[in-house]
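This week, study the protein below.
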Amino acid sequence: MEEVLYDTPLLREFARLDIGAERLPDESTILRFRHLLEEHDLAAQIFGRVNAILAERGLLLKTGTAVDATLIAAPSSTKNASGLRDPEMHQTKKGGQWYFGMKAHIGVDADSGLVHTLTTAANAHDITEAAALLHGAEEEVFADSGYRGAERREEVSERHPTARWNIAMMPSRLKAGIRAKVEHPFRVLKCQFGYRKVRYRGLAKNTAQLQTLCALSNLWMVRKRILQRARA
């Protein structure tokens, strides 16, 4: 980030930094700032505040939620100071292949495709995260076959008794329009922001980064509509 701030005028402008007026933040300063965000759980507050603003502007609705999960790879090598793989990451099997890392679970607004809720876990089955992915005001929930039986789980029926679940009976058979909405945020995270592998050890640090990236992803996805309204 230190190098990018020096090399990219647009990012300096975004951060309101003038290379000619003051010394730009160095690596240590940026690192201390990240630790401050983690210590006070500010990444979650940033994510929540961005979504609150989007909801106020009518860009984030609450009538329906689509849920899904994706795997984020972690280094499996033991060639590090501890000689061990990250103990908070786990190995899981998908599509006949084994992966090492964590799972990012998201709840997405079924209308806009914006992420309103997220959780991270190393090896939790999708169905166990279902209750935590709903905000409580939705009338409809859309999910693939990995969530079959979610509506019968005790924590789901207690916390979300009125939500109607629409679950695909076969893998990859979720309604195309809904699947596109729930997978689009993952594409933005992995392709636009390059978040294909975890950057840190441990779930807490990676969760904080994911919360920040989801806030940025939501802004990126509605950027054209925001700019159109600003010009109006």
About this structure: The CA atoms of residues 48 and 60 lie 12 Å apart. Helices lie at 2-7, 9-14, 27-39, 42-56, 154-159, 176-192, 203-221, 223-231.
